[in-house]
């Protein structure tokens, strides 16, 4: 029996005549626990908050302090990145007077989506509903809405809803009118896909949700 535990078997395993003895489940778990404890002791920074890292600084030698400072800077960068990505998260109403500040002069690394609407138009209310959902899903993007009269006087109703996409103060995409925005039966997934095509968001949708409908229309024709 190659798995028998005798002194003779140990000698045969030493000279590789027999394969190494298979570890039991208990031995494997024990080894995993030892590795976990080892990593826990060797790299304690991973389990500390920024406050704990600062308090523990006096207990480390010079090499530890250098490693600690590098790790603290890394954690700060991750925290700042997370804060920036979660800065928005809602569809916010602005007026025409705020347009330049909120849209044109937004930070260069921030995408801005603004919906010009009129509350008397059902398609505009539908777009606002979908943009509210997308704002929560993509909190790193600034989602805004504004009553069209406060921004542009005498804007024709046939051009509503109007969705404008900005970055670095320039228009990167636009959807003008019901048809371009997706129609009166617009679904939130369809609007998400449209915005992803412009590059403003990274969608987890694998294909255009409206593809099947378009194929059916083509087949019907």
Features:
221 residues, Glutaredoxin, five-stranded mixed beta sheet, elongated, Phosducin_thioredoxin-like_dom
Count of separate structural domains: 2
Rounded to the nearest angstrom, the radius of gyration is: 30 Å
CATH topology of the largest domain: Glutaredoxin
Strand content: 5-15%
Helix content: 40-55%
Give me the count of strands.
5
How far apart, in Å, are the first and last alpha carbons? 75 Å
Q: Which architecture of the largest domain does the CATH hierarchy give at level 2? A: 3-Layer(aba) Sandwich
Family: Belongs to the phosducin family.
Pfam families: Phosducin
Domain Phosducin: 46-201
Protein name: Phosducin-like 2
Structure in a nutshell:
The protein has 221 residues and is an alpha/beta fold. It has helices spanning 7-14, 25-42, 50-56, 62-85, 99-104, 122-137, 148-151, 177-181, 188-198, 211-220; strands spanning 91-93, 112-117, 142-147, 162-167, 170-176.
Account of the 3D structure:
The protein folds into two domains: 28-85, no CATH class; 92-203, Glutaredoxin, CATH 3.40.30.10. The protein contains ten helices and five strands; from the N terminus they run H-H-H-H-E-H-E-H-E-H-E-E-H-H-H. With 221 residues, the chain is of the alpha/beta class. It has helices at residues 7-14, 25-42, 50-56, 62-85, 99-104, 122-137, 148-151, 177-181, 188-198, 211-220, and strands at 91-93, 112-117, 142-147, 162-167, 170-176. Pfam families: Phosducin.
């Amino acid at each position: 029996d190659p798995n028998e535990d005798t002194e003779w078997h140990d000698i045969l395993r030493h000279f590789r005549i027999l394969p190494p003895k298979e570890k039991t489940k208990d031995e494997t778990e024990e080894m995993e626990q030892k590795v976990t404890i080892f990593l826990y002791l060797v790299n304690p920074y991973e389990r500390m908050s920024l406050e704990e890292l600062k308090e523990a600084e006096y207990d480390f030698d010079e090499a530890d302090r250098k490693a600690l400072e590098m790790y603290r800077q890394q954690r700060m960068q991750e925290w700042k990145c997370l804060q920036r990505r979660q800065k928005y998260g809602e569809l916010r109403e602005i007026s025409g007077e705020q347009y330049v500040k909120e849209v044109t002069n937004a930070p260069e690394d921030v995408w801005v989506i603004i919906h010009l609407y009129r509350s008397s138009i059902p398609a505009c209310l539908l777009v606002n509903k979908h943009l509210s959902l997308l704002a929560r899903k993509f909190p790193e993007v600034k989602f805004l809405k504004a009553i069209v009269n406060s921004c542009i006087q005498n804007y024709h109703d046939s051009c509503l809803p109007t969705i404008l996409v900005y970055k670095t103060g320039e228009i990167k995409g636009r959807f003008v009118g019901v048809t371009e925005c997706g129609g009166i039966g617009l679904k939130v997934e369809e609007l998400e896909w449209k915005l992803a095509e412009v590059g403003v968001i990274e969608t987890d949708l694998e294909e255009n949700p409206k593809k099947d409908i378009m194929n059916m229309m083509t087949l019907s024709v």
